[in-house]
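Re: export button greyed out
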Amino acid sequence: MNATTKVKRRHFLIGSAGTIAAAAVGGPAIGQDGSEPLPDYVAWKDPDDFIVHSKQTLETKRAAQGSELITPSNELYIRNNLPAPPDEIVADRDAWEIEIDGVANPGTLTVGALKTLGVETVVCVLQCSGNGRAFFDHETSGSQWSVGAAGNVVWTGVPVRAVIDAMGGAAEGMNFLTGTGGEEIPEGVPKETIQVERSLPTEAIDQAILAWEMNGEPMPLAHGGPLRLVVPGYYGVNNVKYVRRLALTAEESPNKIQQTSYRVRPVGVSGDPSQPSMYEMNVKSWITGPLMDAATGKVQIHGVAMGGVSDLEKVEVSTDGGQTWEDAKFLGPNLGPYAWRPFILITELSEGTHMLASRATAQDGQSQPEEFPPNERGYGNNGWRVHAVDVTVS
Amino acid sequence: MNATTKVKRRHFLIGSAGTIAAAAVGGPAIGQDGSEPLPDYVAWKDPDDFIVHSKQTLETKRAAQGSELITPSNELYIRNNLPAPPDEIVADRDAWEIEIDGVANPGTLTVGALKTLGVETVVCVLQCSGNGRAFFDHETSGSQWSVGAAGNVVWTGVPVRAVIDAMGGAAEGMNFLTGTGGEEIPEGVPKETIQVERSLPTEAIDQAILAWEMNGEPMPLAHGGPLRLVVPGYYGVNNVKYVRRLALTAEESPNKIQQTSYRVRPVGVSGDPSQPSMYEMNVKSWITGPLMDAATGKVQIHGVAMGGVSDLEKVEVSTDGGQTWEDAKFLGPNLGPYAWRPFILITELSEGTHMLASRATAQDGQSQPEEFPPNERGYGNNGWRVHAVDVTVS
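Workaround output, generated via the alternate export path:
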């Protein structure tokens, strides 16, 4: 671990404690001291739980994640590519229309009609592709998320498979599941440059749902209500908000967000469609407490761990910077392969500074690497070393 | 089904839709139209989701329960035997002290100390003994709950077993686990008459925890923070709030709440310790939608089901008043034997009025009876017929 990494990590230790974060990272963050109100469209959230990077990017504080089985809606992070549509779109939720295309019998369905085609509830991690970006050594554009662009959420909606079946099945020669967001495109702006439209491999149909409920409540507008495409196991950007068209398509969307954004490539290289897109999430974990200080003697080290697209095998905790590891205990029921699991290890810490790290291993064999390779946009960071915290015990 | 039963049920159909309930049942309810604020100590809850029977008894609306996997804290019902203690008791949560007695080495532990002894997370139904009381034909004293004195909640705390072990194990000859609440007893009132102190069979130790978190947040004062005894599978009253003493005892508490209250006995008979106490919950389910009206064609019938102290085997739905039954589908992951499971059945309804009923069966073989026997205080009602709803389809 070089000095730069350490400095970056220390910034986030401070950040985890609250208000100083925004200033410390020097980015476009809005200072947030708990008294300043959140942006109007998320005014119902708990201001104490957030680091506000911008009006469209609100990060959940690391300490607030705690050992939560489910992330309460008022704590869940926000990352919008475009401003949310006006409130009116959730005034009559069942009347919201979605165009279904690339099927034998294309047509338009209301949410009310979708509700009669099938229902499923799934718990999954919602996580921004750039979660962990702040831990990279190299300069990256985009929000400097540490760990708080992630939450574990309950979604209810109709399986995409049931919708396709109801429309007569897939048309021939279709290779992608393409969802189009309902954000307003300002006049004069070519829609390809900003419209949220993502194309996913058709395997995603196995788990994708069109969801109208989040955490047991009608989907909040700020999270994509009245209807959101939810693809368990896939990074946040693929979970298209206010979805107004769902299509099986032969080609990927021509839009920038699909063609060149969200592509993993070496530092300094431009995005292009030949590079891997940010689809399936990887195995990951992080400690959420203690983050800075602890008393000597017995201490609870806790955090959250996720398998990406697989159940977890184990999560280990180290209190000596990765020299030795001990299995932590999962807390509460397993909510399925796409959900996170809180974990806990009760151990003794002596006086001094200890580097606490966690490392998750999934049942599909994936395990967190010590370092995740740098990449141009700072995506997918699951390296255990940079996610570690230095805790001073006295 | 006689006429009286039908009238009572109809009241609750109205009640489930909102404000008219309080007037319709004619009890001590405070009218609640969504604009009147909730009592101060629960002002953070969503007023639209409640029927306010009194300052100490707030019922979640049936429609609000929906098909929720977890009940959000701001929707969870309130039933307090005594007013909540002042806010100050949650100012320094880790400093709250609990006396541990009836063990080899009795003593006092802080919440901070409890947190180093072990941690578990459990999801379980919290349900008042009198939930369903309003559906009995006979007159009953006590809050006229329909289905809303219940919720499915995530709790985190230390297993009671770990606490007993840490204190050297149980003393000899102890038959009960006795928890004492921290409510203030007004001067001059004999504590036996009102103090919340419950004694449970020692088998309850297998699943009991001392919980400091509810739904991933520090335990709200209104729900027993900073520390609550949570006994998964047991009726609400046994989950002692602001718990300040936990003891293994040879005898049951001498207090009224243990000796004569919460005893199941025939109508007209006084409570006494020879009668069964309200400990383990029974198998139960109810429909949460639709409740009054529906459109012809396909409709989603949904609700919640619980096995009491056992995993569920199945839940069936009838749309013809119990003549025929069809298996419903469970929604989302199984959160364990003490949790409820939302269920759904998509079916077609023709024009007219249909009596929609649900009937749960647990893996331990228990099933909801058609009628639950009347009893003096109106406890434990899990009869499927009175929980049914008449829905008019047009």
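Residues 3-17 of chain A form the longest helix (15 residues). The button fix ships in the next patch.
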